[in-house]
Amino acid sequence: MENNKKKSFAGYIIVGIILLCFLYFILWLIFKEKMPFHQYAYEIANNYDAYAEKALIVLPLVFFVFIFFTVMRPTPAKRFLRLQASLPTSKIKSLAKGLVEIEGTLIMKTPLSSPVDHETCIGYYYTIEDIDRDSDGKESYTTVHRETQCNSFQIRDETGIIEVEPEGIEFVLLGETNISSNNSKRYTETLLKDGQKMLLVGYADSKNAVSFIRKDDHYKVLGITSSSGITVWNKYQPLLRSFLFTCSAILLIIIYILIQ
């Protein structure tokens, strides 16, 4: 919910700046030299073609920089994917204290009831979206609420069982389990269920000689994903990275040619 508020606030700022510029232009057409920054506006109006040519060069560069920082901005999911690619999969019986990756079957302790289909589960990621329809009836969705709820659970592999404290857990690359909608809202939920085979990255710790896994304080990561899904991701992620690098290189070459 907080992320949506930040995005909405940023959107209002951008729209406000555009409207302010448009209002200034209208007032400048009326009052001319009485307006502040008259000389700059006059210069732009008399050399419109030159400034438009520069804009055609600058705008793609600004767009590229924006996309680059958006893609590179660290998130819990990105940290999880980066760490799981470098960490070896450990066995529960031989876990050492610190950041670990384990793979095993989920064991439910205290059940939750999911908000959409009221299924019994270990935990869920739940979203509410507003449905907007254009004149052609095509639907678009805007998230207005999201939440993650998860009870403590265990993971079992062939060597043992370990407890997981789920505070701050992130569901990564997990598709929706159930979807429901009405005329104006869409409700989706992604569930963790008893018996699922999952891969988890977190911090192995112990208390009173009992081992457990919690969110890592340094990397701020406690993530879980399906074993099959992460295998596919690890297989095709290098191709995706190469494709993005190639597109970036081509765009930089195009910008360089336009500048010349």
Automatic annotation (TrEMBL):
List where the protein spans the membrane.
Answer: 12-31, 51-72, 239-259
Organism domain of life: Bacteria
Kindly state which keywords UniProt assigns to this record, in alphabetical order: Membrane, Transmembrane, Transmembrane helix
Protein's recorded name: RING-type E3 ubiquitin transferase
* Species: Chryseobacterium lactis
Q: What is the lineage of its organism?
A: Bacteria, Pseudomonadati, Bacteroidota, Flavobacteriia, Flavobacteriales
